[in-house]
């Protein structure tokens, strides 16, 4: 279960509330009018027990999404019981009276669905999206979780989930750079009795102290249906759904009244400056936080606009001063973050190595002063406004995103369709509003400032900063009696209900049908693939050029990635700032990225702006600016980012795992971004040489998905067809060393790591191999999602990890089969033993029941995994890259249907043999190396973070 680090609205509403004011006119009509015309139709009713139900019909795909939003978050906790709302979310996924043990975590994925939950300051949400045949089953599981779970909670389940949540905290906060920053902020921004004084994840001692009585009290106090909203969105019939909601949810007992909390600003009276030395940070970071205003207040929209004006683009004053002029950091961020009771306006700079944060602080002040004196232009406002409509549609593209947005807005704003009102409020922001909120919340106001620096670099903190105190867990060896499991099932009398609460049957099974795909070939060799999809008035498209990292010189790895970034820094006709402005005024997004085997120019825009957006893509691709100043800035930024990765245990594990598999002479042994060594000597001429040798329409493809037809696309592509001349480009075949490392174990030390990161695998097969689909199918039961054996064993049964998984990767080159997880440090040895045994037994124990599970997960799951424009775009990419049939997914489904137990066993034996796998462990050597040696019978090779052997 995910715990919110940022407000949900930022994920779902996006710039519908992150942007703006009125709108610029386009060729057809004002965006403001379009935004006002947007609607989110729904039907709402309230059950007698107080549950508010919102229904939204969307018949574009045979899937249904459910979102249950509980009006209880960490702001309802008591001091000494922090983290409990999030912990209870975990407990809710365990068992319930009428569903089988583990059903909530395991069965939904086996039905082809997805499910999760999340908790933030003010609320908790649970959600599922499933093929429509599982509609009744989700009604059953969701209602049972809400109304009939508390009797099933056992001491053993409680103990296990405590370990899982502690693992989540270690993985996402304690074992990452800057993970304690939010804790320091909350303790110092809010008084001790304020509900936002502590983090949502809570403290380890508080989590460890949770009791059964705490769980029961929290449930009875806050989990009544009268404190919740249920949203059902998707391929439904309103009348039938209303009857089913009444049948499944209507008998749940009403809970006590939960009185609303009144808004309570932070009440900060003086500026506070604190610092922390961070074990994992390699870069100094400064954060300045001003108290602001609560969610849904009108001022939040002006503050969102202000954040964009201060730091949102190249012309913004903070960017100009910090990045361009003083060259202190690769970027600067400004954000408005609002919760139910209060808000925060955040300025954040992750600086270059060894940069004084005092200097960064002075630069922030200079930038704010410049904003006060120079103001901003109408064009800058216009740019922000232009993004509103695009982001409005993008924020409700899927049935799940609509369900989550409507659930939150109903529960916290009383209006399921508040998103359309939010767009209007953002459009209505004026220049006077922006300056008023700047003066009201920032100018001359107290703030909390945090200086987080690498260990031993206290000299970089802001002058006068006080040492912050945070709880740091001590890493120890051994399992320390923390081995937990499922335990016995609870004994209880089932709640008597009028309606039968046994598991309902499946409805009619829907199968995924590939949408109609059109294709064409242009005279210069460029291939074009498209899907005309009218669900939202947006178009997503890309130009994909073969090569990418695969064409990098080994000694200059990272060339393609740096060149891709430089292509976005202006064109021959436009400065970097002018290009950024042209994109923004269209309400579009354009990016250029390099991956292992391709460079991709990717864009998203309103359908009516496709032609001008494509024209900008062509200008970026064919008329590079080769700006020397921007090249120098990007090199500094790259060095900063690579330095920041040095103590990231997951990055260290992944990079060294690939280096071992591919060998030191293969380009894939280095990250596509390169290393500090390979990028240090890169010149602008290197990038130009790569571009002139490798950027060609030969073998390239354009992929287009959205509300646009083939003829319109063809007309818009004519300039690219005539203006981009073809030339031959070939990707050299690289030598892969003999795979003789099977069974080897490697250890990389990250001192004081709270968890150990494990990467296990081997090179398996290429994307063109006819066995690839079989290998993907065979992996489904092992490591695909929470229902996979890896997560069920390491998390559900043992409580060693927050999550574990495995995958079969798809490249033209031979690609790996990978098992990965992050386990608590003192469970490193036992986790390795369990994984080895699981992999050893996987093929021999694969049964007909496993075949059935794999088929259900994949066949039914296909109905929802290709819902979004991005997912449809990926279908087209796979067709063009691997020369697949337009019906390849349906063909794969037929192949899967014909596979039996022996086919799965043979595939597992060929590509997933445990004795052929390499083990990489990244963790605390002082406490864990001996445990790893026991696992490896003493044969462990020590490496440094760059993969060099350590004597």
Automatic annotation (TrEMBL):
SUPFAM superfamilies, per the entry: LuxS/MPP-like metallohydrolase
Q: Which N-terminal stretch is annotated as signal sequence?
A: 1-19
Q: Which InterPro entries match?
A: Metalloenz_LuxS/M16, MPP/UQCRC_Complex, Pept_M16_N, Peptidase_M16_C
Residue stretches making up the Peptidase M16 N-terminal domain: 53-168, 536-660
Looking at the keywords, is GTP-binding present?
Answer: no
Highest taxon listed in the record's lineage: Bacteria
Question: Which Pfam families does the annotation name?
Answer: Peptidase_M16, Peptidase_M16_C
Provide the Peptidase M16 C-terminal domain boundaries.
210-387, 682-857
The protein's UniProt keywords, in alphabetical order, are: Signal
The family database entries (PANTHER family) matched by this protein are listed as:
METALLOPROTEASE (PTHR11851), MITOCHONDRIAL-PROCESSING PEPTIDASE SUBUNIT ALPHA (PTHR11851:SF49)
Provide the family line: Belongs to the peptidase M16 family.
What is the protein name given in its UniProt record? Insulinase family protein
- According to its UniProt entry, this protein's organism is Hymenobacter jeongseonensis
Classification of source organism: Bacteria, Pseudomonadati, Bacteroidota, Cytophagia, Cytophagales
């Amino acid at each position: 279960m995910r715990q919110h680090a940022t407000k949900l609205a930022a994920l779902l509403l996006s710039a519908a509330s992150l942007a703006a004011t009125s709108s610029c006119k386009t060729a057809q009509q004002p965006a403001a009018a379009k935004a006002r015309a947007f609607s989110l139709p729904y039907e709402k009713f309230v059950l007698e027990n107080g549950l508010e139900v919102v229904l939204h019909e969307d018949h574009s795909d045979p899937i249904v999404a459910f979102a249950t939003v509980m009006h209880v978050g960490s702001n309802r906790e008591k001091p000494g019981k922090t983290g409990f709302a999030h912990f209870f979310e975990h407990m809710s996924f365990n068992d319930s009276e009428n569903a089988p043990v583990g059903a909530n975590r395991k069965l939904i994925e086996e039905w082809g669905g997805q499910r999760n939950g999340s908790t933030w300051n003010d609320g908790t949400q649970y959600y599922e999206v499933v093929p429509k045949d599982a509609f009744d089953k989700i009604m059953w599981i969701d209602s049972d979780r809400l109304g009939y779970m508390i009797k099933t909670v056992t001491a053993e389940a409680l103990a296990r989930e405590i370990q899982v949540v502690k693992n989540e905290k270690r993985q996402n906060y304690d074992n990452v750079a800057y993970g304690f920053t939010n804790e320091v902020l909350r303790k110092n921004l809010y008084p001790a009795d304020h509900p936002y004084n502590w983090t949502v994840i809570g403290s380890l001692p508080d989590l460890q102290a949770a009791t059964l009585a705490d769980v029961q009290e929290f449930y009875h106090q806050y989990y009544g249906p009268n404190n919740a909203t249920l949203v059902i969105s998707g391929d439904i019939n309103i009348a039938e759904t209303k009857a089913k909601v009444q049948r499944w949810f209507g008998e749940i007992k009403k809970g006590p009244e939960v009185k609303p909390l009144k808004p309570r600003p932070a009440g900060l009276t003086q500026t506070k400056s604190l610092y922390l030395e961070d074990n994992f940070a390699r870069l100094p970071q400064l954060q300045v936080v001003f108290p602001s205003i609560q969610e849904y207040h009108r001022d939040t929209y002006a503050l969102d606009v202000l954040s964009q004006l201060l730091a949102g683009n190249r012309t913004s004053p903070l960017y100009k001063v910090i990045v361009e002029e003083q060259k202190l950091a690769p970027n600067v961020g400004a954000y408005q973050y609002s919760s139910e009771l209060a808000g925060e306006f955040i300025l954040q700079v992750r600086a270059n190595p060894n940069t004084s944060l005092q200097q960064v602080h002075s630069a922030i002040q200079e930038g704010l002063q410049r904003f006060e004196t120079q103001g901003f232009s109408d064009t800058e406002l216009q740019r922000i406004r232009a993004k509103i409509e695009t982001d409005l549609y993008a924020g409700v593209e899927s049935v799940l995103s609509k369900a989550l947005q409507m659930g939150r807005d109903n529960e916290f704003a009383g209006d399921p369709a508040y998103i359309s009102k939010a767009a209007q409020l953002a459009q209505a922001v004026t220049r006077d509003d922006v300056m008023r909120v700047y003066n009201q919340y920032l100018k001359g106001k107290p703030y909390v400032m945090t200086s987080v620096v690498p260990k031993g670099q206290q000299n970089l903190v802001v002058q006068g900063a006080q040492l912050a105190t945070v709880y740091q867990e001590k890493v120890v060896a051994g399992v320390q009696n923390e081995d937990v499991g499922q335990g016995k099932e609870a004994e209880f009398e089932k709640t008597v209900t009028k309606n039968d609460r046994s598991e309902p049957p499946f409805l009619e099974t829907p199968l995924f049908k590939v949408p109609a795909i059109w294709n064409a070939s242009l005279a210069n060799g460029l291939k074009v693939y498209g899907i005309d999809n009218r669900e939202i008035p947006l178009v997503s498209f890309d130009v994909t050029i073969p090569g990418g990292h695969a064409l990098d010189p080994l000694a200059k790895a990272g060339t393609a990635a740096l060149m891709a970034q430089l292509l976005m820094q202006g064109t021959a006709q436009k400065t970097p700032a002018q290009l950024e402005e042209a994109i923004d005024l269209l309400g579009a997004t354009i990016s250029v990225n390099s991956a292992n085997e391709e460079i991709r120019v990717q864009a998203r825009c309103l359908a009516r702006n496709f032609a001008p957006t494509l024209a900008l893509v062509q200008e970026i691709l064919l008329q590079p600016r080769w700006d020397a100043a921007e090249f120098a800035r990007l090199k500094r930024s790259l060095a900063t980012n690579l330095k920041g990765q040095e103590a990231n245990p997951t990055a260290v594990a992944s990079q060294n795992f690939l280096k071992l598999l591919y060998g030191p002479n293969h380009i894939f042994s280095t990250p596509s971004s390169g290393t500090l060594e390979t990028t240090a000597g890169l010149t602008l001429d290197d990038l130009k040489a790569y571009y002139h040798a490798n950027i060609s329409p030969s073998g390239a493809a354009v992929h287009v998905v959205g509300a646009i037809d083939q003829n319109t696309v063809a007309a818009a592509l004519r300039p690219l067809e005539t203006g981009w001349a073809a030339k031959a480009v070939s990707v050299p075949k690289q030598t892969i060393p003999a795979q003789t490392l099977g069974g080897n174990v490697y250890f990389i030390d990250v001192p004081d790591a709270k968890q150990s990161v494990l990467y296990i695998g081997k090179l398996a097969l290429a994307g063109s191999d006819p066995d690839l689909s079989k290998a993907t199918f065979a992996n489904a039961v092992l490591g695909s999602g929470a229902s996979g054996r890896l997560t069920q064993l390491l998390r559900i049964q043992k409580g060693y990890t927050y999550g574990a998984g495995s995958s079969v990767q798809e490249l033209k080159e031979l690609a790996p089969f990978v098992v990965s997880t992050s386990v608590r440090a003192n469970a490193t040895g036992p986790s390795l033993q369990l994984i080895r045994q699981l992999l050893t037994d996987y093929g021999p124990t694969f049964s007909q029941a496993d075949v059935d599970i794999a088929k259900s997960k994949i066949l039914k799951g296909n109905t929802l995994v290709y819902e979004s424009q991005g997912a449809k775009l990926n279908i087209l990419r796979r067709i063009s890259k691997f020369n697949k049939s337009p019906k390849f997914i349906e063909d794969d489904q037929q192949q899967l249907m014909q596979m039996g137990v022996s086919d799965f066993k043979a595939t597992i034996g060929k590509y997933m043999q445990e004795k052929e796998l390499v083990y990489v462990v990244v963790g605390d050597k002082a406490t864990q190396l001996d445990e790893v040696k026991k696992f490896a019978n003493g044969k462990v090779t020590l490496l440094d973070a760059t993969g060099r052997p350590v004597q």
